[in-house]
Amino acid sequence: MELGLEGRRAIVGGASSGLGRACAMSLAKEGVDVTIVARTRDRLTAAAAEIAAATGVDVKAVAVDINTDEGRRAVLAACPEPDIVVNNSGGPPPGDFRDWDREAWIAALNSNMLGAIFMIRDTIDGMISRRFGRIVNITSSAVKAPISILGLSNGARSGLTGFVAGLARQTVPYNVTINNLLPGDFETDRQRSYTEALAKTQDLAYEEMRKVRMADNPAGRFGRPEEFGDCCAFLCSVHAGFITGQNLLIDGGKYPGTF
Ligand code: NAP
To answer: Angle, nearest 10°, between helix axes 41-55 and 18-29?
Structure first.
């Protein structure tokens, strides 16, 4: 399917690895010029070179913390009029809510709720005036089925989801959509560190724990980042202008509900 994205411009957060990188790659394969963001410069520069070599599009790399005002300013200086924004950065740490003070909560809200909201605030009016915009927030399956040790994620991401639900109905008349992609278990660096931590608590080797976790999924495996990236590219396409305010779970069927 031709996605109609040739020559568009995208900002993709958290894109030196994992799901963000996969979204940048899928968009770039469709001819989108991408501005990719992550904090660690060498890994980001390497990802930019790989995406450019694989696709031939213009790839800009901005090494900043996307959840700070200075970071967002630097990203918008590199790509002032994005047609597409993929909001993404790291997830908050696991733990027990009794141990989280105000500072821990504010940090989680900043990374997993306010960062995306401020990026939307800074880009949406331009999209509305140009009558094309696609915003995709990478959240988590934890929004739909909370994961007990990830309370910071359950809480902060649900806040973003509620905010987006209201705003997405106001922007769609101008061909500007906002949707959330909810990853289940995908084969990324974060997945690896999460599985390692879980293995320690259950006194299992990493590979054993990984097998147990994969067997727990109806698909019998973790998701591949490129599967996630291609879903993101479709949501950004010209064909997806009637899809807004949605939460698309990509989890191999792990969530057990009918809806
Ligand atoms: P990942 O492989 O660890 O990649 C995270 C990327 O984000 C890296 O490029 C990282 O680079 C960058 N990053 C982190 N914090 C940043 C910040 N403040 N500013 C700019 N860049 C930042 O993680 P992932 O698995 O792709 O996960 C992406 C998101 O999906 C996370 O929020 C995660 O919690 C969520 N999620 C993932 C899964 C899964 O199975 N993988 C499941 C549910 C939810 P630097 O560290 O160099 O900045």
So the answer is: 30
d(CA 115, CA 204): 36
Torsion over CA: 55, 185, 105, 116 (sign)? positive
Q: How far is ligand 1, taken at its centre, from the CA of residue 198, in Å?
A: 18
Residue pLDDT, tens place only, 35-85: 999 999 999 999 999 999 999 999 999 999 999 999 999 999 999 999 999
The atom of ligand 1 lying closest to the CA of 186 is: 40
Q: What is the pLDDT of residue 197?
A: 87
Buried b / exposed e along 198-234 (16+ C-beta atoms within 10 A): bbeeeeeeeeebbeebbeebeeeebbebbebbbbbbb
Chain-wide mean pLDDT for the chain?
Answer: 97
Q: Which amino acid is at 15?
A: A
Is 1 exposed, middle or buried (CB count within 10 Å of its CB: 0-12, 13-18, 19+)? exposed
Which atom of ligand 1 lies closest to the CA of 38?
A: 21
Determine whether the shortest distance from the Cβ of 254 to ligand 1 is under 6 A. Answer: no
Positions of the chain with pLDDT under 70: none
Q: Which atom of ligand 1 is nearest to the CA of 71?
A: 19
Residue of 39, 70, 144 with the most ligand 1 atoms within 8 Å of its CB, for mutation: 39
Beta bridge partners of residue 147, listed in sequence order: none
Q: How far is the CA of 156 from the centre of ligand 1 (A)?
A: 15
Q: How far is CA 67 from the centre of its chain?
A: 13
Q: Which residues are paired to 186 by β-bridges?
A: 223
Number of Cβ atoms within 10 Å of the Cβ of 58: 12
Task: Please give the DSSP secondary-structure letter assigned to residue 173.
Answer: G
